[in-house]
Specification:
Blueprint (H helix, E strand, L loop, with lengths): L21 H6 L5 H8 L18 H6 L2 H5 L2 H21 L10 H7 L1 H9 L6 E3 L3 H11 L4 E6 L9 H10 L5 E8 L2 H6 L12 E10 L15 E7 L5 H4 L4 E6 L12 H9 L6 E6 L17 E2 L5 E5 L2 H9 L1 E2 L5 E6 L17 E7 L3 E6 L7 E5 L6 H12 L8 E5 L11 H9 L6 E6 L2 H11 L2 E2 L2 E2 L6 E6 L9 H14 L6 E3 L10 H10 L2 E3 L3
Parallel strand pairs: 1-2, 2-3, 3-4, 4-5, 5-6, 6-7, 7-9, 8-10, 9-11, 11-14, 12-15, 15-16, 16-19, 19-20, 20-21
Antiparallel strand pairs: 12-13, 13-14, 17-18
Helix pairs in contact: 6-7, 8-9, 12-13, 14-15, 15-16, 16-17, 17-18
Protein name: F-box domain-containing protein
């Protein structure tokens, strides 16, 4: 058996050597014992000074430098060994390296009596079990004793019920009463699970992962025990269980659908998704990924859905049709300040903006036309919402209308707006009609930073900023304007004349700019007379060098 295989070198030559760099045996990355202790010290109280121990083949040197091991409690050393060993096991399980995860660890135990003695007493080291290592399962279950198990079940379609793999699966499921983390992976998981004897109770199960290559349903009787305290659930191409005892304690729920499968039953419409979330009152983190970007139906009855409260929710991420995602947000009652991420195609003429609850505290919108719209609160390091929209065709009209329709009245509360665009231009002439609806909504805006490739967009912007709406100046609080305009190669170009007229108008209406930064505008620069006029209309003027 692999666990008891002899080392490939004479054991007596290395018997007393303390092996610190266990990770190096497999990964070629050297971590000292002190570094491993520091990694664990976030959860454990350790002495400030831990003696270092070095790997060597010299027995005398080894005996003089192994004092650090004996000074530490066995449970700390065992916990470090568990971290390293389980990291290695998980890596090999991920890559389906049949049985290889355990081949290096017995060599470490053969080398060092001290580690071997700790390993024999530390059952949790052996508590990671992958049924694809069928020849190891029985021994691992024996050595793990009563320790909580982390189990990966690999289901092979069409496998002989008497095969070693199925026998290993049955051995593991007999220990369901102590399984803490369980993963099922198969081709058609529904039919695969039907081959198994369904367990009746899973009182220790906290983490459940189920993945299937093709769309599958979960057998209704598989988790029929009522004493379950599941906190984390991840399903891939699997129907979400609807049993209350499975969902009621969930803190983390992730639903994924692959590109080749149909929509997942039970979560294929806005009402169904909201209904599932309604059974998870303790949910902290929700994620839904539909990589086909299918539009979940938004039907008239959606307006009749009773909103559900998720008082503990801190993060929600949906890779889904963006219109559907916003509808889901509108049916959730959540605490302020959560992180929300939406990625998908957004269709205009959508009269359902993001609820203000998700945007509380936000004073800045950063619109990156190349990829996403980002909304951040006052602290610039903590984003509360990220929108990654994928239109069929980019245009200025789409960008501005999407902002208006998604953020609605929230735009009137913004103090900063930034736009970075480099993908498309616009036709010749003024773009006043394109800018006016968006800029008019910025009643509190103080900082405006714009970068675009079309100089004609800058001309339209100046027309808007120097104009009025119902007798009131547009964007009256604006104090700092930063422009990065490309394509300034046409002579003569009216940008600077338009800018002077705009600043004159704002100065006369007592809304003078404090800073005008056009240092990034390359090509046609203002002449000396224009520079003199511009300097008289702003407190600080930054020109191209």
């Amino acid at each position: 058996m692999v666990l008891n295989s002899p080392p490939p070198w004479p054991r007596q030559d290395y018997d007393d050597i303390a092996i610190l760099d266990m990770v190096h045996i497999q990964t070629k990355r050297r971590w000292s014992f002190k570094q491993l202790l520091r990694r664990r010290s976030k959860q454990l109280t350790l002495p400030d000074i831990i003696p270092s121990v070095h790997v060597t083949r010299n027995d005398r040197y080894s005996r003089e430098h192994t004092g650090g091991w004996s000074m530490l409690p066995h449970e700390i050393v065992g916990d470090i060994m568990r971290l390293i060993v389980h990291d290695q096991f998980a890596s090999h399980s991920l890559h389906r390296a049949d049985g290889k995860a355990y081949t290096w660890f017995p060599q470490v135990l053969h080398i060092c009596r001290y580690l071997r003695r700790i390993a024999l007493d530390c059952s949790v080291i052996w508590s990671y079990v992958d049924t694809s290592w069928a020849h190891l399962v029985g021994e691992l279950l024996r050595r793990s004793r009563s320790a909580p198990l982390t189990v990966i079940v690999q289901l092979n379609e069409g496998e002989d019920p008497k095969s070693p793999y199925n026998q290993a699966i049955r051995l593991v499921l007999e220990e369901m009463h102590r399984i803490k983390s369980l993963q099922f992976h198969g081709t058609t998981l529904h039919s695969d699970l039907l081959r198994l004897i369904p367990p009746t109770e899973a009182p220790c199960l906290e983490n459940l992962v189920m993945t299937s290559r093709s769309l599958s349903e979960l057998p209704e009787t598989f988790f029929r025990g009522k004493g379950m305290h599941l906190t984390r659930l991840f399903v891939f191409n699997i129907q979400v269980p609807d049993q209350h005892h499975i969902l009621r304690n969930l803190q983390y729920l992730k639903i994924n659908r692959s590109r080749i499968s149909d929509s997942i039953p039970g979560v294929s419409s806005v009402p169904q998704i909201v209904a599932v979330l309604g059974q998870c009152p303790n949910l902290i983190d929700f994620e839904y990924n539909d990589y086909e970007d299918l539009a979940i139906p938004v039907i008239d009855s959606d307006t009749l859905i009773t909103p559900i409260a998720l008082p503990h929710l801190r993060r929600i991420c949906m890779t889904l049709n963006a219109n559907s995602s916003v509808c889901i947000l509108r049916h959730l009652i959540v605490p302020p300040g959560i992180f929300a991420y939406i990625s998908g195609e957004f269709t205009l003429n959508f009269d359902a903006p993001i609820p203000p609850t998700y945007l509380l505290g936000c004073n800045c919108v950063k619109a990156d036309v190349r990829s996403s719209f980002v909304v951040q609160p006052e602290t610039e390091t903590d984003y509360c919402m990220v929108l990654d929209l994928h239109p069929l065709t980019w245009s200025w009209e789409y960008i501005f209308q999407a902002l208006l329709q998604l953020f609605g009245i929230t735009l009137s509360q913004l103090q900063k707006f930034e736009l970075d665009e480099c993908r498309f231009g616009s036709g010749r002439g003024s773009s006043f009609e394109v800018w006016e609806p968006l800029i008019s909504s910025f009643t509190c805006l103080q900082y405006l930073n714009l970068s675009f490739s079309s100089p004609y967009m800058a001309v339209g912007l100046m027309d808007v900023l120097g104009g009025t709406n119902s007798g009131h100046l547009i964007c009256p609080q604006l104090r700092e304007l930063i422009l990065d305009v490309g394509g300034l190669t046409i002579r003569p170009f009216p940008l600077w004349e338009k800018m002077i007229l705009c600043l004159h108008s704002r100065d006369e209406l007592h809304s003078r700019l404090t800073t005008l930064d056009v240092s990034a505008c390359k090509g046609v620069e203002p002449d000396a007379e224009q520079v003199h006029i511009l300097m008289s209309l702003v407190d600080t003027l930054l020109l191209p060098r």
